Amino acid sequence: MNELEKDIALLERYIENDLNEEDKEMVEQRLANEDNFKKLLNQLGVLINGIQYAARNKVMQQLKDIEERLPEVQWEEGVEEESKTIPIRNKSYWWLAAASVVVLIVSSIFIFNQRPAPEEIYNAYFQTYDNVMNATTRGEQDAKSNFELAMQAYDQGDYSLAIKLFNELPSVEKDSGVYLYLGNSYLVEKKANKAIESFQKALENPGNFQNQLQWYLAMGYLQAGDIDKAIEAFTIVKNGNYSKNKDADKILKELTK
Fold first, then answer.
1. Could you tell me if residue 80 is inside a domain?
2. Cα(227)–Cα(119) distance, integer angstroms
3. 230, exposed or middle or buried, with CB in 10 Å at 0-12, 13-18, 19+?
4. pLDDT on residue 174
5. Structural domain count of the chain
6. Taking the CA atoms of the chain, what radius of gyration do you get in angstroms?
7. What global pTM score does this model have?
8. 41 lies in some domain
9. pLDDT category, 226, cuts 50, 70, 90?
10. Are residues 151 and 209 in the same domain?
11. Residue 156 domain-assigned?
12. Residues 174 and 59 placed together within one structural domain of the fold
């Protein structure tokens, strides 16, 4: 590592407040006494934000490749090896100019091609599952059952009450449909782990809700920020025979950018 690279590494740590007191004091003394060192700090300050957001190792390798193609600095005759330094007016100007170009390119790529946050994707695609069980499965004679009250709360958007009522149902009544709506209610309440648990329980005996449960399980992983498991679940949805398979395909492309 040459002197310029050492100074850059030192200043990066200074900017990131990652120096001990002794090194910090040394840097500040140099900034007070060395104009070129101070100019380097100012130039590096412009670059550091772009480098931090980009793939730093890749960018630095690009910069090294550019630096290697620059003309060698000619040392003055009679100067000892230990005292050789790279003049700021010379090589560093071109090094930093090249760096500026690379960082601008990388920053542009980052701005226009960055992967959306899982929360953004979740908000764009999540909708609660419609009530398809109320009249068809339970019938009018059960209008005052706990299940019916739970579905009523669900339909009215009182998801906290729906969760309470669904959980109070006897175990024998907690079929895949109940867990599907319970999981949806947990998702609305931002309780991703509880939702995932509900969908996984339902998938042990999914009945007619296999596809729906897999979709909402994927949404649960997305809300929880578990990208790897979300990708696995959305892949199953994509490859299945379900109306959401195209949406799953779009989400997978976003998650794997």
1. no
2. 11
3. buried
4. 93
5. 2
6. 30
7. 0.56
8. yes
9. very high
10. yes
11. yes
12. no
